[in-house]
Write a structure and sequence with these properties.
- With 253 residues, the protein is mainly alpha-helical.
- The protein has 2 domains: 47 residues, no CATH class; 180 residues, MetI-like (MetI-like fold).
- Helices cover 68% and strands 0% of the residues.
- It contains 9 helices and no strands.
- The longest helix is centred in the middle third of the chain and has 30 residues.
- The chain starts with 22 loop residues before the first helix and ends with a helix.
Length: 253
């Protein structure tokens, strides 16, 4: 009988040590961590922070909350001045922007989704063009779209509706592989509407209509009690839309 040479399987366990990462992987992880630290350091050095304002921030926040109380509940149905919108009217505009923007986004997203799906459209250049549109529309934030459409259509709800719609194209259209996503399409649409309700609440800050315009006007005139009311209304609407969409998705899906 000949003696067999020792192998890794019959060596004592003390000579074997399991390592999760190879030396190259550990070096790569260290390089990533170092890069993150350097990025943070460079960012802190480039951000223009005024220490006096930073230390004074707690007192300013306390003073701001004091100015917001008591909440001006009457502002919900009473206009700020003659010819101005009430908070209720601005809220209805916001919900209309979110709904119409979502519907328009779905109508625009469906054809691009089909064109981007290789199992439907066999032309590679059409796939590439459709995917470019999907990526481009979702890569630009809603506020930037709002600024663009405010420049095109002027201030108002129309600009907000198109901003919501164009931002929704890439979100919905990237799920364009049909029929794999057919059962979830309604759920995706409701989820996007929920997001659009939140986003449409702030579009008015750049002149794109909705309740954000009422809040911006109240901030400009230092009417903090009315700002508090608008913030509470936005919070209630966002929570209500979240609960509604969650329940509907459970029933539909």
């Amino acid at each position: 009988m000949t003696a067999s040479s020792p192998t890794a399987s019959n060596l004592p366990s003390a000579h074997r040590e399991w390592q999760r990462f190879t030396p190259g992987e550990r070096l790569a992880r260290f390089a990533v961590y170092l890069g993150c630290v350097l990025a943070i350091v460079v960012s802190l050095r480039s951000v223009d922070v005024i220490p006096e304002f930073l230390w004074d921030a707690p007192a300013q926040v306390q003073d701001l909350f004091a100015r917001m109380w008591p909440v001006d509940w009457s502002f919900y149905l009473v206009p700020r001045n003659t010819g101005a919108q009430t908070v209720h009217d601005a809220l209805i505009d916001t919900l209309a922007i979110a709904l119409l923007g979502t519907l328009l986004g779905l109508l625009l997203a469906v054809p691009f989704g089909f064109l981007a799906a290789r199992n439907i459209m066999r032309l590679a250049w059409v796939n590439w063009l459709a995917r470019f549109v999907l990526v481009a529309t979702r890569s630009i934030s809603t506020l930037l779209w709002a600024l663009f459409f405010v420049a095109v259509f002027g201030p108002g709800s129309l600009a907000g509706t198109f901003a919501i719609a164009f931002r929704s194209i890439g979100f919905v259209g990237k799920y364009g592989y049909w029929p794999q996503i057919k059962p979830a399409f309604v759920g995706i649409a409701m989820f996007r509407w929920d997001i659009n309700v939140r986003e449409s609440s702030v579009l008015g800050l750049v002149g794109a209509g909705g309740i954000g315009m009422a809040m911006n006007a109240a901030i400009d005139t230092f009417e903090w009690e009315r700002v508090a009311l608008i913030l509470l209304v936005i919070f209630v609407v966002v929570v209500a839309s979240e609960v509604l969409v969650t329940q509907l998705r459970k029933r539909v899906l």
